[in-house]
Amino acid sequence: MFTTNGPKWAEQRRAAQPAFNGNHLRGMFETMREATDEMLARWDAYAADDREIGLTSEAMRLALDIALRTMFGVRMTGQAKIIYDALNVILPELERRVWAITPLANWLPRSKVRACNGAIEAIDRVVADIIRQWLEAEDRPDDLLSMLIAAEETQWGPHSMKRLRDQVVIFLVAGHETTATTLAWSWYTACRSPR
Length: 195
Ligand code: HEM
Hints:
This protein is an all-alpha fold. It contains 8 helices and no strands. Helix content is 74%, strand content 0%.
């Protein structure tokens, strides 16, 4: 959706829109609260050990956890950890490529490029697993993934898995990095003015 225009964009936008209506969002509050409570319990354990808390990484973890649970019905299990680690490799590399002086450097077989390609493959495998689990499940949740798959099912073809994978990755990246950064800045500001 992020990278399309015209009728193709409109079709994808229509498919995803119901996942973001008020009733649907209200239905996510309890899941958001659960994920936040789990994070606060983790912070209590850090505090008991007198350990520092990394605000940015905690915000990223919370936002990704909520995005995975609410949009795709996945909890912070092994799959989520793989996505979390992979995005930590891909996003800094993406930023580096955007600011690179010569685009050629992006394609040289350097270790960072290899690590980035490996991370993309890891995400692809997890996303394919999530979609396969959904297709095999008897009790299908009423989440964003269901809406994306329902829209795709009417025109299922050889490229469907790739299109779904692209949509899932777009929502994961667009939905978690933005909110995590906003949250990290809010916490930082609150820490500087505790009252
Ligand atoms: C503080 C949080 C967020 C900020 C600051 C933010 C910012 C933006 C901005 C500026 C755009 C427009 C980009 C453009 O015109 O090219 C956009 C589009 C988009 N955002 Fe967000 N976003 C946030 C949260 C989210 C969340 C939580 C999701 C998903 C759950 C999401 C998914 C998307 C998608 C799919 C688009 C493309 C929409 C379209 O093309 O119709 N964003 N966002």
